[in-house]
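Note to self: keep these together.
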Amino acid sequence: MDLWIAFGFLGQLLFSARFLLQWIASEIKKKSHIPVLFWYFSLAGGAVLFIYALHIKDIVFTIGQGFGLLVYARNLVLIKKHKEKEALG
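Structure:
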């Protein structure tokens, strides 16, 4: 298998795993819940897929993944700020 194809599949695996994480977390809490790990898997999978999209020169895929990376990173920044604010009391 071509290494770039394997790299793309790795990104898709990471990105898809976030849904499994969210589902398990929600089942444990018995309500809809998005764990912080969801955003890390989104960012990691999105980054790998973004690089893959650049490699295959797919502008639609590249723009889509690039925008997603901004959203995932912003959510992690907001979560960090909220935790810091809670820690200060």
